[in-house]
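Sharing a chain and its predicted structure for anyone who wants a worked example. Both blocks are below, sequence first, tokens second.
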Amino acid sequence: MTRPAVKFIADGDPLHAQDYGKDYNAADASGILSGDLPKMSTARYGTLVAQVDADGNDLGGIRDVFVAVPIGTYTGWNLFNKNFFEDSFCTLTGSFVPFAPTQQERLATGDVRPSIEERYPTKEAYVAAFKKAADDLVAYRFLLPDDAKRLVSQAENEGIRRAP
């Protein structure tokens, strides 16, 4: 099975203000609703999204070991089914888009994100990156030392993860 190319779009769903009639006060949700409701206004709300790194992972907040040493892109949104609002965002339903396993597969699909083999040429390289990420989180007091030890041990035993 051929993987499709990953296409990240820097566009947001337009959120249109809704018009409930001239006698309705949206500021305090009072007044009288009129007509066939709601009507879509031509006014739009701005949509703000988090900045992302080259892999498409959010930059803000505490980046846990799985985001610091990624095997794919984790999103807080998902695209709708092509038969239902194609290319629109389904918010609050996250998605995981894995990296290609090999450079050859990445190049064949046009994926700009480095493949697993390019990032972690060996199990040892993956474990070293994972240990550094865990140690950094412990140093910042975002991860307990016992939890870091358990996570690093799991990476040593299982190697590069295949799924989130």
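Comments welcome. The longest helix spans residues 123-139.
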